[in-house]
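Q: Structure tokens for this one, please.
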Amino acid sequence: MDALGHVNNGRYVDYLQDARVDFLFRTAKELGADDLETGLLVARHEVEYRAPLHFRPEPVRIELWISEIKAASFTVDYEILDAEPERRTYVEARTRLVPFDFAANRLRRISPVEREALSKLVGA
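A: Here is the predicted structure, written as tokens:
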């Protein structure tokens, strides 16, 4: 919380990371694209704050999906929101990720298996 009782803006990026890691690692493994688990770097974050989120015991919902796939990067879009009683969005965000080969210490292109798996998550 910040001094005004809102979720601190830096914490939102932590929430997004937690959701993205769970989504990609679990889903990538289910779809046979295991390399996404061990070799991704964040190239860019964009965060738009829509409404303050005040402390409360109830969880918020994070919806995320793949919005773009390129040769050597892909983009995850998110919303942090309450769905009920009416939809209220606190944050809209986007993260561009790049595959990385840690053994060779260099960026790499998205493999055909990864592209197929990511394609199944577009707009998911």
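A few notes: The two ends are 31 Å apart (CA to CA). Residues 6 and 56 are 10 Å apart (CA to CA).
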